[in-house]
Amino acid sequence: MQDEQSLVHRAQQGDKEAFAQLYESHFDKIYRYVVLRIGNKTEAEDVTQRVFLNALQSIRSFKWKGIPFSAWLFRIAHNLVVDYLRKAKKVVITPLDESSVRSDSNPQLAAEQRLDIEQLTSATKRLTKAQREVISLRFAGELSVAESAKVMGKSEGAVKALQHSAIVALRKTLVRAEG
How far is CA 171 from the centre of its chain? Predict the structure, then answer.
């Protein structure tokens, strides 16, 4: 965290290399979060780029409050995703393609992985918005409960409850799909 704090301070002073390091260390997690929420890879790339553009433009206003810099980035991402979804009026899920699954030499394994991803995507659609948000933050974004709570503007207990109810709902849906 100290290294990150130093990088943020340098970026606030206009050090482009420091911001580039922050970008590199956080891009993948932010992108996974955005693509899971939006469902369209191309649009997710655009939104993720806007997250970092907004961060660059307002990094001087960032203040350390005992939470990681990534929580601030996820808050920006959350706001941009909400704006995007509001404008889009509906979520468009991009069909899974071959690049979504690791290419293995075993076609049966690849087919099973594709089926698992399709089932999970379908099951996730049945969750509430808040449940999808917490699953996206916790598992795609790899945030802690505390960080997720800050991003969502909820208590840690609320995030834990949402995560629990989302996992229970996913489990029920996936068990029914297997049966």
Answer: 21
Query: Per-residue pLDDT averaged across 132-151, rounded?
Result: 85
Q: Is the pTM of this model over 0.70?
A: no
Residue with tokens 């979520």: 91
Report the candidate in 77, 53, 85, 68 with the shortest Cα–Cα distance to residue 8: 68
The CATH fold of domain 1-94? Rna Polymerase Sigma Factor; Chain: A (1.10.1740)
Domain ranges of the chain: 1-94
| CB burial of residue 176 (10 Å; 0-12, 13-18, 19+) | exposed
pLDDT in tens, 38-91: 878 889 999 999 999 999 999 998 888 777 888 899 999 999 998 998 887 654
Distance CA 175, CA 85 (A): 30
Instruction: Supply the DSSP string of 29-49, one letter for each residue.
Output: HHHHHHHHHH--HHHHHHHHH
